[in-house]
Design goal:
With 332 residues, the protein is α/β, with parallel strands linked by helices. The chain has eleven helices and eleven strands. It has a nine-stranded parallel β-sheet with strand order 9-8-7-6-5-4-3-11-10, sandwiched between helices. Strands 1-2 form a two-stranded antiparallel ribbon. Helix 3 links the parallel strand 4 (73-75) and strand 5. It is globular.
């Protein structure tokens, strides 16, 4: 069994040598904020590549975002742990070979406690101390029945405690502005989130959403349930839509939904032809993401977390619109 893991520093390699990174996401986003300036930190989400071509595309995006300076980057984890080895390898490479601060995803589904401990050890070996803990989706059908591994854990709260007990890890969790699709109602969903925060999670990153009011109501519910836990950052996740078909698929898998007015707008942009007008859809998607981000900044969101799908251009355009980057990201 693995013992208690400690971290003296989290370091990464850059062209100028080794650099020391802040080992906590909360400290990083707070130190990056500029109160009263209308500027806040941003972060981005990558997905583990499925083949060599996809990996080359990922690394182009990684290098572009390294230039833009996110507070942190996260690497997702496939349903049922299907990308476990690739997730560990690529997240480790980001830690070793860039100046970026990586957050590794860890899911409970399909893993025994021993396997989860081994994953934490593998991340620790690469100097990765920030972990986003998720219950995870079932393999095959993400919306299907969730079945606990016979030697695993049932809830994300248990996984938070497991990771925290392993050593000096900094843990984040997921939150759901529209409520998790498995939760019976929003009150239960809020209690689940608060229980994860009480277990030791330091922040949460939301599932993607398209109605800022849903995020604001989530934040208010957490404060009403437990004011102390309500002080912890709730980081909103934004997906700049570049394809209506792709957006619908992502929403189907997540259990989220598009507001009716936005969907109608995107449908009009897509047109009536056999192939959607991607350029028109993309224009709407960038505009909507920018408007959402502007309001979230005004409402005091601590950081903006962008789903990138391993491309830098769309997120880079939103950041440029917000004045959060020196220039629009190049196509990647």
């Amino acid at each position: 069994m693995l013992g208690f893991v400690t971290f003296d520093a989290v370091r990464g390699r850059s062209s100028s040598g080794w650099v020391t990174r802040t080992p906590t996401i909360v400290d990083r986003i707070r130190s990056s904020a500029e109160p009263g300036s209308g500027r806040i930190p941003f972060s981005v989400e990558f997905s583990p590549p499925r083949d060599e071509a996809a990996e080359a595309r990922l690394w182009r995006a990684v290098r572009e975002f390294e230039r833009l300076g996110p507070a942190f980057v996260s690497m997702t984890y496939g349903a049922g742990g299907s990308t476990r080895d690739r997730t560990v390898r690529v997240t480790g490479q980001i830690a070793d070979e860039t100046t970026l601060l990586p957050v590794a995803h860890l899911t409970a589904v399909g893993h025994s406690i021993d396997e989860l401990r081994a994953m934490c050890g593998a991340y620790a070996d690469r100097g990765i101390s920030n972990i986003l803990v998720l219950r995870g989706d079932p393999p095959g059908d993400p919306l299907g029945e969730w079945v606990k591994h016979p030697d695993g854990v049932e809830y994300a709260e248990e996984l938070v405690r497991l990771v925290r007990d392993m050593g000096d890890f900094h843990v984040g969790v997921a939150s759901f502005p529209e409520g998790h699709y498995r939760a019976p109602d929003l009150d239960h969903d809020t209690k689940y989130l608060v229980s994860k925060l009480r277990a030791g999670a330091e922040y949460s990153i939301t599932q993607m959403f398209f109605d800022v009011d849903d995020y604001l109501r989530l934040r208010d519910r957490v404060v009403a349930c437990d004011a102390e836990q309500g002080e912890k950052p709730i980081i909103p996740e934004i997906m700049p839509i570049t394809s209506l078909r792709s957006a619908r698929r992502s929403l189907e898998l997540s259990g989220s939904k598009l507001p009716v007015a936005l969907e109608e707008r995107l449908v009009r942009a897509a047109g009536d032809g056999p192939e959607e007008d991607r350029a028109a859809v993309r224009e709407v998607g960038i505009e909507v993401a920018t408007e959402m981000a502007e309001r979230l900044i005004t409402e005091g969101a601590p950081c903006l977390h962008f789903i990138t799908l391993n491309f830098a251009r769309a997120t880079g355009e939103v950041l440029a619109n917000l004045g959060l980057s020196a220039s629009t990201a190049a196509s990647a």
